[in-house]
Amino acid sequence: MTDVIEMHLKLLFDLDNLIADMEEPAYKKIGFKIEDEASLELIRKRNQLLKKLPEELGQIYEILKRRYRQAIAPVESEFCLGCFQKLPTELATRSKEIITCPNCGRILYWRKK
Amino acid sequence: MNLASLLSKDRVSLSLKPGKKDSVIKDLVYAIKKGTDAELIVSTLLKREELGSTGIGKGIAIPHCRSLAVEKLEIAVGRTSKPINFNSIDKKPTSLIFLIIAPPQDPGNQYLITLGKIVQIAKEITKKNLIQKAKTPEEFITLINDIEKGLTKRK
Lengths: 113, 155
Hints:
- The complex is a heterodimer.
- Chain A is mainly alpha-helical.
- Helices cover 50% and strands 10% of the residues of chain A.
- Chain A is globular, with a radius of gyration of 15 Å.
- In chain B, a hairpin with a 2-residue loop joins β2 (55-57) and β3 (60-61).
């Protein structure tokens, strides 16, 4: 995965979380004003970002998003934070590939230290 | 979770360089993260601002987002030496900015609880005209702690 694709993927994920939060009753209750037209524009931007990903990756992302709401899971102390299963140690060394969790299938993300 | 406990003095800047909204947000993000992670957070925060300004009025703004780039709830606070245009809802300039970034996975929905708490504290700050009160980051954290205690007592 190139750095540019990785950046698009991460931004897509963050925007999807932003869109999901806007729909949360607890978020709406806080009282921030959201403009309808701007939220539609955000969805359009998110879809454009999805198209910038390699087709297969985009499809995997969308399937995982539908299944889990969040398609990407960070890794912490060798655990997938999506399903909380321990990951095989050798996965971390394949940092330039798209790696999915062998247990839940989410796309794994190792944070930069 | 106590809000003051999430603040540290190195994340409180009471003489933030005034500038455009984007650059002020960037400066606050860089107090938390550097490099491409910081760029990711800034992009998400600016997209959030496009939905509607997080400038809640009376001189305070609360930019916020979730990001893959952080592993725990992160807060930075900045007070600009001169008020800036944050496109706030009351169209008035802003000088106190609470920046909050949460990880995507957030057990107990700590992010939204904290965000709600910051909004309440911000309202107290404006009501009592306290934006310029603290002279040092330590004083600012004490002020937040006192307001938070007051709000808890009222409940």
